[in-house]
């Protein structure tokens, strides 16, 4: 069986210079006409299972672990954690657990412990997160991870560019990825709960070589990242577009293939034109789009932090306004105006 098949690489688009759109900061909304795909309504049985999960986490005396594994301490849910425990969040875990209620509860419990341990349980450092922008800022100085634009189903796009790697392999690289995943979630519009990944393995001559770094991470790091994505961000990935994959990266992909769950494999797209999935006006010109994007850390980074901080503040304000309880809809929490559902 062929696990991965290499095809042609994605080349520059056939664009006219005068039509290019100069961009140095994140794009704040999808292109006109790009809307999230409508969710299928739950069956009566699925709705009942959701209510069972909801009732478990609504227990006033409930205390949850402070680490992913081997927790010896526990505490009640904070307001920010209640805001994270939305209707859609619990349904994502139920789907990932094949609608087995106990498994979904256990997975959510483990994720809450992991989020506390990793330092991202408070909805941003302004609310008490210990994973700080300053901790990972150096990792992003070359623009190796960028939140930019939305695909045709209004998913915010996280660009991953291993060829712009500027640091040695370390746990901070994993922290950086998690930090950026949280920021791309901050950029989701109302009605959307998934993200898109655009992964380009191209070399970049303007990035200084650092001894001990590699655009293809060690298997151990790859497995840790996969564990985080599949365990603690279930049903978040809508599409992953990969291009310019060298033979070493293909080897890496084949090695980690057994650790990728079947649903995730179905979302991987190799070396297809990105304009099939992303409107031109939301796509970097390197991939056939119209965005003339140049990463300048001093411009992009503060803008991303400010915009996502504003979005989190809006989300939490809506959470309080709508009652501040577990099980509110993310769509309502992200909505603007008087929308309450």
From TrEMBL:
Every CRAL-TRIO domain range: 135-295
SMART domains on file: CRAL_TRIO_N, SEC14
Biological processes annotated in GO: phospholipid biosynthetic process; response to xenobiotic stimulus; sterol biosynthetic process
Superkingdom assignment: Eukaryota
Name of the protein described by the UniProt record: SEC14 homolog 3
Catalytic reaction(s) noted: a 1,2-diacyl-sn-glycero-3-phospho-(1D-myo-inositol)(in) = a 1,2-diacyl-sn-glycero-3-phospho-(1D-myo-inositol)(out)
Protein localization: Microsome
Pfam families: CRAL_TRIO, CRAL_TRIO_N
Keyword Endoplasmic reticulum: yes
Xref: InterPro entries: CRAL-TRIO_dom, CRAL-TRIO_dom_sf, CRAL/TRIO_N_dom, CRAL/TRIO_N_dom_sf, PI_Transfer_CRAL-TRIO
Sorted UniProt keywords: Endoplasmic reticulum, Microsome
Organism whose genome encodes this protein: Eremothecium gossypii (strain ATCC 10895 / CBS 109.51 / FGSC 9923 / NRRL Y-1056) (Yeast)
GO CC term (a single one): cell periphery
Residues in the signal sequence: none
GO MF annotation: an example: phosphatidylinositol transfer activity
